Amino acid sequence: MNLKLKKIEINKIYNQNCIEGMSLIPKNKIDLVITDPPFAINFKAKKANYNRTSSRVLSGYNEILPKDYYDFTFAWMSEVFRILKDSGSMYVFSGWNNLKDILRALDDVGFTTVNHVIWKYQFGVVTKKKFVTSHYHCLYVCKDDKKRKFFPFSRFEKDEKTDDGRSLHYKDKEDVWNIKREYWTGDEKTPTKLPSEIIKKLLEYSSEKNDVVFDPFLGSGQVAVVSKSLKRKFLGFEIVPEYYKFAKKRLDTDTYRIKKSK
């Protein structure tokens, strides 16, 4: 972890604690934040969940204890609020376990909630004594609702229709999204990652070309990689050295999926 940084540059990522790193970013600098913060559960990065081969999953996933989760969340969100432009927005992903701490911190920091989106994926972990969790929450928030950027017809024209005659742009903007997880069989991967389809959708609705898109918890680098492919500027932090190196390799080589070396 680099604690000697004096300046943060755009179109770079850093192996850095994000709260320390954000203190080096000037206020009102960021156009859009998309992030999936660490869990507050006993998550084992090497466990072969979701049919993963554990030898191909990079180790080192950084966890926050449940008792510390609100304070941790309030700290990083406060920095995001400072560096976000008045016209900017943030999308925060969360499981149900730590959702209440995230909602509380968003309110306490001063964000305005715009939408609460549900991402429904194809399947969750099989359970015996409770219902299967097969969705994720996405909180869409902003700093100033009157200045917030949103492009309602960036993906579909106003009059475009589905095969059954429904409005395509209306359907695309409903707040329950059925989007499959990505399974990178045989490739290097981090334990969790957002599908590129979700990131692309958020970028197209809430940013323009050359906007600065920021992720304080980069992981595999998905947000930065997809942002770069859509001609957005990117910036991010990742505290785990193995994940940082993996994300940097993807960005430096413009490679979406990296084959696991033998």
From TrEMBL:
Pfam families assigned to the protein according to its UniProt record, in alphabetical order: N6_N4_Mtase
EC number assigned by the record: 2.1.1.113
Cellular component annotations (GO), alphabetically ordered: cytoplasm
Start and end residues of each DNA methylase N-4/N-6 domain: 30-249
Enzyme class: transferase
UniProt GO MF annotations: DNA binding; N-methyltransferase activity; site-specific DNA-methyltransferase (cytosine-N4-specific) activity
Signal peptide bounds: none
Catalytic activity from the UniProt record: a 2'-deoxycytidine in DNA + S-adenosyl-L-methionine = an N(4)-methyl-2'-deoxycytidine in DNA + S-adenosyl-L-homocysteine + H(+)
UniProt superkingdom: Archaea
GO annotation, biological process: DNA restriction-modification system; methylation
Gene3D superfamilies: Vaccinia Virus protein VP39
Family: Belongs to the N(4)/N(6)-methyltransferase family.
Protein name, as recorded: Type II methyltransferase
Organism expressing this protein natively: Candidatus Nitrosopumilus sediminis
